[in-house]
From TrEMBL:
This is S-adenosylmethionine:tRNA ribosyltransferase-isomerase. Monomer. Its EC number is 2.4.99.17. NCBIfam families: PRK00147.1 (NF001140), queA (TIGR00113). Gene3D superfamilies: QueA-like (3.40.1780.10). The keyword Glycosyltransferase applies. One of its GO terms (molecular function) is S-adenosylmethionine:tRNA ribosyltransferase-isomerase activity. Belongs to the QueA family. It is found in: Cytoplasm. The keyword Thylakoid does not apply. GO terms for cellular component: cytoplasm. Pathway: tRNA modification; tRNA-queuosine biosynthesis.
Amino acid sequence: MKLSNFNFELPEELLAEYPSEHRDESRLMVLHRDTQKIEHKKFKDLIDYFDEGDVMMLNNTKVFPARMFGHKEKTGARIEVFLLRELNAENRLWDVLVDPARKIRIGNKLFFGEDQSLVAEVIDNTTSRGRTLRFLFDGPYEEFRKKLVELGETPLPKYIKREVEASDEDRYQTIFAKHEGAVAAPTAGLHFSKHLMKRLEIKGIDFAETTLHVGLGTFNPVEVEDLSKHKMDSEKIIVPQASADMVNSARGNKKRICAVGTTVMRTVESAITSKRELKEFEGWTNKFIFPPYDFSIANAMITNFHTPKSTLLMMVSAFAGHDFMMEAYQEAIKEGYKFYSYGDAMLIL
């Protein structure tokens, strides 16, 4: 498959600026791979497609407020700093993106907070926009992390042109978020409400938790026509033994195993035994899934609507079938479904 196979015209007004008022009230397009049938539902109708003993695999990563604004020493120029990953806790070293990058050189100091209570020094250039920062903070590590949270804001995607609002802190986070480490939300999970989770639980559906700390690499544009030449950034993943056991047992019983989101699908496909079972795993993955691909674990998937030429669209096309997925996307545009992080959802069966 080529990059151009995943291009389509997406009207700008279909990029969601806000989530639906209630999490489980977003729209749900249901794709039946066996019959090529498409249904239009609400997300809370999801429960009708699952039975006792089925398993939903969730990503329990937690988004941290990764976007900060500082000022450059001497000139006072306003600089956006996006925290990507902590490199060394003891030395307060972070891998970051800066904007505008041309103004930021090794040796520059950045000041954060109205009282300039946090200072960072640029100690390395990593990419055109990437820098390594050393934060100069005298207090204990817990206080330093608290300060980052206090000064940071919810890292909404750039296409959302509005200012971050107080409600984003809650809504750009799944209700089952536990382990901090993501700079973007695993968006398929945003549609689950406490009420819907309780109803699924009562019906006997099990939840297997995994972790993938979403990095910005997930959203890096693909710039090569030959997809086999695209390289994904590495992201940290964890599959606990209890989740592997639950999924393998359900698989043995021919139950429905649903990956909630592309991040979960990449996680489980990166933790497979030679017998094509899920195994306990903690490490890194840079797995890139595009058609054709033979999936090992999940036989159902929940996902949002993705942007043209994205690695996320390529993965869901591998799962649903490329032609069927592109047909579904044209239908979604015609029906006015909302796309991307705060958009509507799709269930692929």
